């Protein structure tokens, strides 16, 4: 019981920046292992702390893409791109998702952004 209490205090004592960064790191670890559901949970945890946290939005889009949830991937990658319009990695991932929809012109626009 005491251990649980200490764990809760430690979690509450972390700064929001540290909380979202730790959630992002855990999510990236899950994503590399192909554990998409777990990754999605962690990225959402990071976004609860900061809804405009671009690395978590980008990673969440990649996790959705891994699950073949292309509409969700498109939504999150589009949000990330609005916040970081010059990001080549986001443009590349968004272009891949657009290809899944057969949105050739939009995907071509992402290729141009990546160049």
Describe the protein's architecture and organization.
The protein has helices spanning 2-13, 16-32, 36-49, 54-66, 70-83, 88-101, 104-114. With 115 residues, it is mainly α. It has a domain at 16-85: Tetratricopeptide repeat domain (Serine Threonine Protein Phosphatase 5, Tetratricopeptide repeat), CATH 1.25.40.10. The radius of gyration is 16 Å and the shape is elongated.
State the main characteristics.
115 residues, mainly alpha, Serine Threonine Protein Phosphatase 5, Tetratricopeptide repeat, 83% helix, elongated
Produce a short descriptive summary.
The protein has 115 residues and is an all-alpha fold.
Note the topology.
Layout: H1 2-13, H2 16-32, H3 36-49, H4 54-66, H5 70-83, H6 88-101, H7 104-114
Helix pairs in contact: 2-3, 2-4, 3-4, 4-5, 4-6, 5-6, 6-7
Inertia-based shape: elongated
> Mind telling me which CATH architecture of the domain at 16-85 this is?
Alpha Horseshoe
**Alpha plus pi helix count:** 7
What Rg do the Cα atoms give? 16 Å
By secondary-structure content and strand pairing, the structural class works out as: mainly alpha
Mean pLDDT equals: 91
Give the name of the CATH superfamily of the domain at 16-85.
Answer: Tetratricopeptide repeat domain
Q: What is the helical fraction, as a range of percent? A: over 70%
Give helix and strand order, one letter per element, not per position.
HHHHHHH
Q: Total number of β-strand segments?
A: 0
Profile the largest sheet: none
Regions with little confidence, pLDDT below 50 for 5+ residues:
none
Q: Cα distance, first to last residue?
A: 56 Å
- What share of residues are in beta strands? under 5%
CATH class of the domain at 16-85, named Mainly Alpha
Q: What name is given to the CATH topology of the domain at 16-85?
A: Serine Threonine Protein Phosphatase 5, Tetratricopeptide repeat
């Amino acid at each position: 019981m005491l251990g649980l209490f200490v764990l809760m205090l430690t979690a509450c004592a972390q700064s929001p920046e540290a909380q979202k960064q730790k959630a992002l790191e855990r999510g990236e670890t899950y994503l590399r292992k192909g554990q998409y559901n777990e990754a999605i949970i962690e990225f959402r945890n990071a976004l609860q702390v900061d809804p405009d946290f671009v690395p978590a939005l980008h990673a969440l889009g990649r996790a959705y893409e891994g699950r073949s949830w292309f509409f969700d991937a498109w939504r999150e990658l589009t949000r990330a791109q609005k916040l970081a319009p010059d990001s080549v990695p986001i443009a590349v991932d968004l272009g891949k998702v657009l290809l899944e929809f057969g949105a050739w012109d939009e995907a071509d626009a992402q290729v141009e952004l990546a160049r």
